[in-house]
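Section 5: illustrative case.
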């Protein structure tokens, strides 16, 4: 299992899909590449929590560190809007309060 560490201030978008149990979460400037990292198949309850925390990041003490397990190394993908990285949720996210 692979993992990444980021912050709630990096949440760019939470996408709720037709399946009420699964969402996509996008993080901006992943790994300082200037590109987005999209994590697919995040449980909707976790995605909702990340969306809520991301709203409060203008206040520095609300910015939380996130430890996210992913299934595979992110793969660069291209579409009409540009290129971004994609991976799948690996089963665990920690919201750290330090």
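Designed sequence:
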């Amino acid at each position: 299992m692979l993992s990444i560490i980021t912050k709630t201030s990096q949440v760019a978008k939470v996408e709720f899909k037709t399946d009420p149990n699964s969402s996509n979460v996008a993080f901006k400037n992943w790994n300082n590449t200037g590109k987005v990292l999209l994590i697919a198949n995040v449980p909707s309850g976790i995605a909702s929590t990340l969306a809520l925390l991301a709203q409060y990041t203008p206040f520095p003490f609300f910015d939380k560190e996130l430890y996210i397990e992913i299934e595979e190394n992110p793969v660069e993908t291209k579409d009409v809007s540009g290129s971004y990285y994609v991976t799948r949720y690996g089963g665990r996210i920690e919201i750290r309060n330090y």
